[in-house]
Design a protein that fits this description.
The protein is mainly α. It contains six helices and four strands. It binds a DNA duplex through helix 3, helix 4, strand 2 and helix 5.
Length: 117
DNA sequence: ATTTTGACGACCC
DNA sequence: TGGGTCGCCAAAA
């Protein structure tokens, strides 16, 4: 019994949002990573959808980027600029619309951080 | 019911 | 790096 099949869209949404909220300030996570942590492997696009519809004011949506580190919005778009600004404000280095390698190292630590009590 | 559309991702060149 | 293919899936058309 796979978790995904029994979960209602409402439950999946809640799990995804929870996973997003679990990403600490100063680090980033990929859409696919969030999906995986939410028990929904392969549902990266679902994560994107949920974020787009969430509307939650205090949701750290800006910490979610593509698996290659790039910002998922069209370059120079309002949302793109906003995400860059918010990440930088948290100390994440953004170069050419993508999380710099230096900051990505923190992602690996994040994995251990989230999976280890 | 079938097709198109995404805040995506793994792969391959 | 950068571009194109194919897989994925819930909504919208």
């Amino acid at each position: 019994m796979t978790l995904e099949s029994s979960a209602t869209s409402e439950e999946r949404r809640a799990r995804i949002l929870a996973a997003v909220r679990a990403v600490p300030a100063g680090s980033t996570a990929g859409y696919g990573d969030i999906a995986h942590r939410a028990g929904l492997p392969g549902r990266a696009r679902l994560v994107a959808r949920v974020l787009a519809e969430s509307g939650e004011a205090d949701l750290p949506w800006h910490r979610i980027v593509r698996s290659d580190g790039k910002i998922a919005f069209p370059p120079e778009s309002a949302a793109w600029k906003k995400q860059c600004a918010r990440l930088r404000r948290e100390g994440v280095e953004i170069v050419n619309g993508r999380v710099a390698m230096a900051s990505r190292v923190a992602e690996d630590d994040l994995d251990a951080l989230l999976w280890r009590p």
